[in-house]
Amino acid sequence: MTTPQPLTPGLSFLWERARRVNVAALVGRARQAAARHGRSTPAVVIDMLWQAGFRGVGFQDYVDYDFAMLTSAERSTYMTSPVSHRLALQFDDPAYRHLFHDKIAFNRTFDEHLQRDWMVVAPGNATELRRFAERHGTIVTKEPLGRAGLGVHRYHASEVTDWSRFHRGLLDRGETLVEEVIRQHDDLAALCAGTVNTTRVTTYFDGERTHVLAMAQKFGRGAVSDQNAFGGFYAMLDESGRATGDGYDSNDRVYEAHPDSGIRIADFRLPMLDEVVAFVDRLARVVPQVRYVGWDIAVSPTGPVLVEGNWAAGVYENKPSATGIRTGHKPRYLAAIAATDAAPRTVPAAETAAA
Question: Taking every annotated instance into account, which residue ranges of this chain make up the domain Alpha-L-glutamate ligase-related protein ATP-grasp (predicted)?
Fold first, then answer.
């Protein structure tokens, strides 16, 4: 049984955290939150610092989840990035994290669940690359250690005129993982056909049972990735797979409808939900030493497909101004973890708060 860790950080932590605060970023986020919720910027700055130091709330969490409009009790129900990171450090064995961090190692480990062709670019295999690309028409390349969608690119075989040069370019840029493009379910393609719109399913595996902690549907804007850096946004899903309200992103934009297709986000319902839940249960058992994972799943016409898994699961949470719901998912996280008697029933204080 894990020894409980203190709920609040010590003075040494607070001093170190204060030394590393990005003041400009803090004030910019505070000004943004104050303008949206009708509060003074100095008051929000003080509140953000207090929440970061004593409650493990990242500055971006504070803005994204409308903490400026929530009560203390409502805030306490939210999972935050620093607390999530602490859980990942506690429940994801360091000896196995590389199987998720390195995308090539991940593909090798989870190959049977990818349900798509893939290959690794290496010196001397330009001909193999050409055959792969021409067979599929369009390919996606990835930098093995890229994160948040960065390092992901899309190419069309018909546009390549010199395969030796193309192959050499991939090697030089480190784009060494090449994959077939996933075909997504028609219900997802209707929103944005140009991007594979993935579902983030955050799970905790207790050694016997896989607990689904939260689900979020991500929506792309036609780029190769549906991540925020590519213009994407998301909506939380309830237990029936329905969107809980409008979509939103980390730039404080709210989307009542998809900007490209015009489809109302609140009307979205994830197809094949039961299959997705059963699928992540199977995934969680492949590397049981990594217990807390954020899975990115694409639903194809025939069922769920694994895109990737993230050992540092990240946080997708409810935004009250977009949904009208003023509570988050932390009680669900804690209930799943506490039920195993493997963790403290209070959330350990965050080691860092995102600046």
Answer: 175-315
